[in-house]
Amino acid sequence: MHNHDICVSRVSGSPVVTFPLSDNAGGANPVITADSISLKRDGRRWLGVMGEIHYARVDASAWMKSLARMKAGGLDVIASYVFWIHHEETEGRFDWTGSRDLRRFVECCAALRLPVIIRCGPWCHGEVRNGGLPDWILTRKPRTLDESFLSSTRRLYEQIADQLRGLLWRDGGPVIGIQVDNEFGGPAEYLLKLKSMARDVGLHVPIYTRTGWPSTSTAMPFGELFPLFGAYAEGFWDRDLVPMPGNYWRGFCFETMRTDVQIGFDQLGEREAKDDEDTPQYPYLTCELGGGMEQSYHRRILIDPRDILAVAITRIGSGSNLPGYYMYHGGVNPSGTTSLHESQATGYWNDVPQKSYDFQAPLGSFGQTRRHYHLLRRLHMFLGDFGELLAPMRTTLPEKLPNGRDDADTLRFAVRGDADGGFLFINNHQRHLKMKPHVDVRFSIAHESEDARTELPLRPLTIPANASFIWPMGLDLGVTRLRHATAQLVCKITSGNDSTYYFASTHEGRAEFVFDACEGLQIETAHAHERLQDGARAIWADSSSQSPAITMRHADNRSVRIVLLDDADSLRLWKLKIENQEQAILSDDDLWIDETGRVRGGRMVRIEEEVDVRCTRVASEARPIRIGPLGVAEAPAASAYASAAEYVIRIPPRLDRANTIVRIEYIGDVLRFLSNDELLLDDFYNGDAADFALSRLPSHMNELTIQILPLRSDAPILLLARDAKAGTSNQTCELKSATLLTFQSNDHALS
If both were cysteines, with which of 249, 456, 574, 615 could 484 make a disulfide (CB 3.0 to 4.6 Å apart)? Predict the structure, then answer.
């Protein structure tokens, strides 16, 4: 048996600081305050969940549905960049129309009661050329206190303020905060000037933020800007052509340090992994937990959905009280006078796709649902119901921690707890590391200066490889106390005096539930067995049924039910509030509530119709790949596609283009979708399929052209799908299949 001991301290290393936020309420909005532990709403601790979507990269017609589905995924804050280069392409001429319409986007958030943080820039990055700075301003001194630059930036801020007039939090609107600039390592005075400028033009919000990496070159006065942090499973920006270089492995471990030195490694270089001295006095908030990963030409990352869950679990277990995902919803770079994508040719570090910004996000560019949407949604249901309880709990780490990227032997766990209970966080997954099951595991959790000790489980069990989960300890159920459970707590449904707690199985075999003995309490079990243990009721339940495994009825007419779902069913569980009543629904469909309060649902299904594909040109020998001016492989120029294979797909008549995607399985270097030689979308091959929404094909066109550039065997790129290449040829180019998928609405089943 393998015992793991940990002692939970009741004493914080830093005193709790209260931040005097202003402009923190308006109309029916709750008052937002903060201290060094968490944000608060009307004095109650708030462990929010934030996700990024770029309004300019998503068709305006899709905003409302996309935002509603983000909310259904458990998000309660929306973040978005304002790309200056896209709004003021010509100096003095701003465009806020169509998918540039910031005001309309924020109004959609308001309709769904979703708070918003606007990342104002002026420099944003977001894989946008010039970091989002317009071409015409580059001759000045960007990101400095230069008067010419600041004068133009002020004009941008005035425009943003005009877009948000009446929509700020103090006005009863959804905008709770703004971020100034991004990833800035210069003097703090520049960021402070941006904050002052924002307030001068009317951007009065409770929360002003900056990215917490890198440190500013001069000291940032405490309390002026909240530092927000991040962590990614792996990045496209690294210069090495090996998997998981540097310190990415740390994102899969529990730790007290907040700064991730791998973020922005291309621009910021190697630097010491440390936090600023005053960092522990701020609440631990994040804005860039990787929701996926974009492609660069030289690094073709293929995300495992378990990567995304594991990083989220470790950051929350490490004390984060605002998981904020970048990106949560993918997109497509819009057309304009100037292109948006960054490239070495324009002086930036990486070549990224010209059009695609899918980011392998939980919701793809066209709203495709990825598996990590559901993995995170299950986690977010837990945070939505129990985040207020979790937020003030401090993190305690065990004495033995992983000693490096290849350590699969040390069990990774942490406790967030207090004298009354807490939560045990476990992560046994790391990207590109073969993890092993941990057999016969038990934990002994002591509380400093207390006699209390939690021993769990009563029967040792095996932690599966690649599992990430949270177990509750000392949870007050109203009728009794749950001493511990070896199952993931998901959500709670309350109706009158009745409460139902939903759990998800986390390991093979039965889950263990141990309750305090309580007079006047009757316990009934199904597909379970129980015994008395040290004055407690210990029950072992399996997940073979969707009905309650445990029912507890108290003499005062209160009742509590425990439902234990297997992993698959727990990912089908949705908690919705319908006509002011909480409901739990098991559904294979994606569900959401629209702006009218109506429950909507549906799923993508394959159209059983053979796709008409004809080859109009076979691939010839691909051009040699050059190393670009920033030292990595350079993406092909337009002339390179003369060697690409070309196919034409005939679009069937009477097809519902608004809700249909064509999915291309292929092997190659780059795939492009075109119409009349106009580039609609591109994809750097990473082993996954490429999707294209037919709504983006001009309505009068009934053909879609596809080009696939051959993949050279000597390509100086990171691509773990290289084993897909066939034969002895020095290049591979293959269209494997073309499939039509359509969104099938099942709203009728929910009425």
Answer: 456
